[in-house]
Amino acid sequence: MIHLDTHVVVWLYLAALHRLAPRARRALDQEDLEISPMVLLELQSLREIGRLVPAPDEILGALTSSVGLTVSRVAFEDVVQRAILQTWTRDPFDRIIASQAAVAGVCLVTADQTIRRNHPSAIWD
After folding, report:
1. Which of 46, 73, 86, 94 has its CA 20 to 30 A from that of 101?
2. Which pLDDT does position 33 carry in this prediction?
3. Tally of domains in the chain
4. What distance lies between CA 111 and its chain's CA centroid?
5. 3-state class (DSSP) for residue 121
6. Confidence at residue 74, expressed as pLDDT on a 0 to 100 scale
7. By three-state DSSP, how is residue 61 classified?
């Protein structure tokens, strides 16, 4: 099982696999895929500011059907307790998404350099 950061979900939905680093692509091919519910909120935020057209449930539905993507059920209180300790960012999306993966004990696929510098189980290249 691995978690996906929001941009990875968008690229997967758009079939833009060329944007993924080789190690990230291999991880997507070899592992079950899961996201934090916070990814859905970030997708909605991107939609509201005009950076994304499809609704989060459309993206989730498509990826659930095509690649078996699921939403993590880790207790939100546990995620928030971990996120409180993530002082390396002020971005609430990054804090929750990285903390969700950490609490679940899984790797996070992300191109985000700040997350990769501070989240020991981040995967990219």
Report:
1. 46
2. 98
3. 1
4. 10
5. coil
6. 96
7. helix
Say how far apart CA 120 and CA 125 lie, in whole Å.
13
Query: What residues form DSSP beta bridges with 108?
Result: 3, 122
* Closest C-alpha to 95, from 11, 38, 10: 38
**Residues 78-100: what's their mean pLDDT?**
97
Residue 77 structural domain = 2-123
Predicted local confidence at residue 93, as pLDDT: 98
Q: How far is CA 92 from CA 39, 65, 121, in A?
A: 11, 29, 19
Q: What is the domain-level CATH number for residue 15? A: 3.40.50.1010
Mean per-residue pLDDT, 86-101 = 97
Distant-in-sequence, close-in-space partners of 23: CB < 8 Å, separation ≥ 6: 123, 124, 125
Percentage above 90 pLDDT, the chain? 100
Give every strand in the sheet of 2-4, ordered side by side: 70-71, 33-35, 2-4, 107-109, 122-123
Tally Cβ neighbours within 10 Å of residue 97.
30
